[in-house]
């Protein structure tokens, strides 16, 4: 099974108790896939707790740092795609680097950013 990168929408869906999101997350873990998310994504959704559902989801994920190089690439991708959400660009950059499927609630901007980079993404919409 391919790797998976979560967008903020995936984390928000889990926090809201989405059965679809939780079922997908369990399937990944049962298949030996540990989903990734950028620390920037976590910062976008974390509100200081307690966020029990989100904390439970995070325990099965790998939170990856945002490097300077990734930040620069994401900023350039925003300019090329004429979009504005840095988090979306970061998710695209991380997923493309690993060939991951992106779990998102915002597929249009994700595709637009990837196209601006001359690439395509596989998306799973929550």
How would you describe this protein?
This protein has a three-stranded parallel beta sheet with strand order 1-4-5. With 126 residues, it is of the alpha/beta class. The chain starts with a strand and ends with a strand. Strand 4, helix 7 and strand 5 (122-125) form a beta-alpha-beta unit. It contains seven helices and five strands, in the order βααβααβααβαβ. 56% of the residues lie in helices and 13% in strands. The chain has a single domain (4-125), classed as 5'-nuclease (Rossmann fold).
What spatial form do the alpha-carbon principal axes imply?
A: globular
In order across it, which strands form the biggest sheet? 1-4-5
Biggest pleated sheet:
3 strands, parallel
Order of SSEs, N→C?
A: EHHEHHEHHEHE
CATH fold node name: Rossmann fold
Q: Please give the CATH class.
A: Alpha Beta
| % residues in beta strands | 5-15%
Category from helices, strands and their pairing: alpha/beta
User: How large, in whole angstroms, is the Cα Rg?
Assistant: 14 Å
Number of spatially distinct domains: 1
Please name the CATH architecture.
3-Layer(aba) Sandwich
Mean pLDDT: 95
Kindly state the percentage of residues in helix: 55-70%
Distance between the termini: 19 Å
- CATH level-4 homologous superfamily: 5'-nuclease
Q: What is the strand tally?
A: 5
Counting DSSP H or I runs of 4 or more residues, the number of helices is 7
């Amino acid at each position: 099974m391919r790797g998976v990168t979560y967008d903020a929408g995936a984390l928000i869906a889990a926090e809201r108790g989405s059965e679809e999101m939780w079922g997908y997350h369990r399937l990944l873990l049962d298949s030996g896939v540990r989903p990734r998310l950028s620390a920037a994504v976590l910062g976008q959704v974390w509100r200081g707790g307690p966020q029990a559902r989100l904390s439970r989801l995070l325990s099965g994920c790998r939170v990856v740092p945002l490097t300077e190089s990734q930040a620069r690439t994401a900023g350039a991708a925003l300019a090329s795609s004429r979009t504005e959400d840095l988090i979306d660009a970061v998710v695209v950059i991380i997923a493309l680097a690993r060939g991951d499927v992106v779990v998102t609630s915002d597929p249009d901007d994700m595709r637009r950013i990837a196209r601006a980079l001359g690439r395509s993404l596989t998306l799973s919409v929550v």
